[in-house]
């Protein structure tokens, strides 16, 4: 529970003098994600602790090295949660890593992503300056939205010191249902129900079974259960944890795991292997050892993109290539925040 | 790095080249050069600031926008994008030696997809028109700024507009999936996607709320939300604004996220009641509107829960809308608050600070003190759920010194918002109005980072120069004189 800002600042300034890149790392639970980390280790886990938590303001501010599990437990004590239901991928996951990775869990399609809940950040830039963007309030349009830009930037724009997140009350009631449906019909059903005022909070299709979670007021959940039908799932919490943390059987035999982000109504793709589908059809996991180009092309044709999430051959990079004008903007932004390229070089794209 | 001060005005020959070039790109009636034609563009909703542009371009298609940008980029002419001109911070105020690029002719709804629950629209489409087009499918576009009848989606993107339902349904940034954007050199890029995320940095978040300073929106794909079966609003009266503020915290502490949660003080309700006859309690020091939406059962459950909380928090009267007509009537007053105040004063300034709600009592007390100090009346409407406060400062521009007093008073309110840990603008943008107070909210280094972001998109500072992010020189002036002008 200490404030290591000054040590971090000295470290960044020294790195700038030595021109020695830094590899920012929290609990290391997402080391597998993105391109291979490079640089001298800068461990953020010592910089931990809740800075402020105001349940009635729906805002929490934490130091980046705070364990995600600790943060969620503190929120849980007051009946609140991180609505984007982030994956931890290990008990040492930190709040800073959660924001930097920008990964959201099963509730994403209904509630929004990490970036939707980032209200403010305090960071160290590549010149060792401490900068504050956003704040602890829900509406804030003063200056460019730099805090949301940090979500998913994989630490390449700065070292996150503190993050302020919007939190929400836990729903009073939840129910999980399961129906037998083939893939195409499941995609259709998820989109149809998504267009109705139903309290759908998560969906998952795998191996001919569509599992749906309803969350909200007791009356609304009861009415939706009636409408959708299907069978109640007994150990629902374990099921959704398995999907979120990728402990589900589907993920265990994947040599190369692809993450395809697509328009939700996209029909089943003609790629080898059956996917696991989440987010009402907008997120599709695929275990596929075939060439990256085929997967990327199929995703792009559908209007989405593909990430090589775990394993596989990363020589072409983990993330979907960017069109030249967007890559130019990325490099310019990187230069603005980290002129010497100190932070996590190459982790997002090999170009910066 | 470029800055407004460094822009050199075109000489006569340069202007002639610009006009000749634009005439080649645009139809005759799409280029305004005569002074009488430029006058309607001299200001936006912030009428206290007026400036004639060099000329106004009204392209009708994407190719023309691209060509206009290429030409302006080549000649280093500033470009100020404009939608409906309803903005309240002067984001669309012209620059004297620049072009106003009006997107008013981009009014087509290109596609409404009821299965994907998206609408693809041109930037000049009005906010409300999207919901109207989606209505046959039981869908709507959630952000609903008070100006939604007139304001355009392009302007909403530029300002990250909110509305009275954003506590539950989010701001523009939460409801836009994809933008087609022209960069200053005419390059067209797709930012975001019809999926739920995109590779690389979240440029979509950066674009939204960027006040027309990073690119020109050519097309937006927005998220549509299923229309709830029922909505009902509870209206509670309080004999003390502090009690009303605490009631808001109590509702949220009870685990309820109302679809709308609004507060008005006595001067605001008085002005509104006289205008729309919404049936507001004129004896109350503050009234609170708390809306619930969902299935009939869900609404009944939530309204009952809110009623219990409001009673416990000391409401002196609680009324729940009995039907849709009454619900709309209750809201009509809140939505008409700005014009209602406009009726009782020759001029008013609408402030837009956001504060942590726990400081509401302190902030309102100080606003009342300042009202006496500056000898100007003030009514307060408050997006209470998300802490966004709109003090409406009433003045008469024809009385000597009142404009200065009003802006001085407004500036103090903004500084107060920052002092309690809030921000100078929740949803109206910085524009030209609050550019000085940016020096209060941000350090020199933070402002430099903003300039870095700007330069990443627009190296010559041609898009909407002089807005939103002050130069270091402006800040030194502001700190010396308390005024950025």
Structural class of chain B: alpha+beta
Number of strands of chain A: 17
Described by the principal axes of the CA atoms, the overall outline of chain A is: globular
Could you describe the largest sheet of chain A, including whether it forms a barrel?
8 strands, antiparallel
Identify the overall geometry of chain B. globular
Instruction: Could you tell me the CATH topology label of the largest domain in chain A.
Output: Uridine Diphospho-n-acetylenolpyruvylglucosamine Reductase, domain 3
**Number of H- or I-type helical stretches of chain A:** 12
Report the mean per-residue pLDDT of chain B as an integer.
94
Just name the CATH architecture of the largest domain in chain A.
Answer: 2-Layer Sandwich
Order of helices and strands of chain A: HEEEEHEHHHEEHEEEHEEHEHHEEEHEH
Count of structural domains of chain B: 4
Number of helices of chain B: 18
Write the CATH fold name of the largest domain in chain B.
Answer: Alpha-Beta Plaits
What's the number of structural domains of chain A?
Answer: 2
GO molecular function (chain A): catalytic activity; FAD binding
Pfam families (chain A): FAD_binding_4
Keywords (chain A): FAD, Flavoprotein
Organism (chain A): Candidatus Desulfobacillus denitrificans
